[in-house]
Predict the 3D structure of the following.
Amino acid sequence: MPNLNNSITLSDFGKHLLSLPKKDMHLFKIFGWSLVLLCFLGCDGPKEPEFLKLHNIKFSDLKMPPNFGVGVTADAVFHNPNAVGMTISGMDLEVFVDGKKATDLEQRLSTKISGSSDFTLPVKFRIPLSEKDLIKNLSHMLTGAWKNQSVKIKVTGTITIDAAGVDIAVPVAHEDDYKFKDYLLK
């Protein structure tokens, strides 16, 4: 029997467990498995990062026909509600502008994020434009009225989280209005 007065070594503890009568060993196993089960059932699983907004939106790189469109760079801002950090390994998103699919955005990443914090992922995509839309909105562009207009941008798809070597696809869905005047150089 080990000395339980002050301290016990791991090997002494193991010897003590092996010397328990069969009935006590059975109770110890039930207690151990109950403790493990209680921990799994009592703990919430990981929560999905929440998409908050597009930030630092910049329009650039206007291309003329036949590939008429404008380049967009932005920071996608998310919130990690989990107490532990994680690694974002990719994004597979669809971007809609005013209800019309503008582009697919697929990026492979290896971005470490902290627990219980906001984080940004840089995004870059092109919004194709039609010549009809350009001609239709030409009067707004010439008078400057376009500055007061807004566009509704919707982002749907998944971001991929690397959790201990296993990729987990997390759904993303967010829609917001963006006014042009808020993103002009001042």
In short: The CA atoms of residues 35 and 41 lie 10 Å apart. The chain has a mean pLDDT of 74. The helical segments are 10-18, 22-42, 131-136, 138-143.
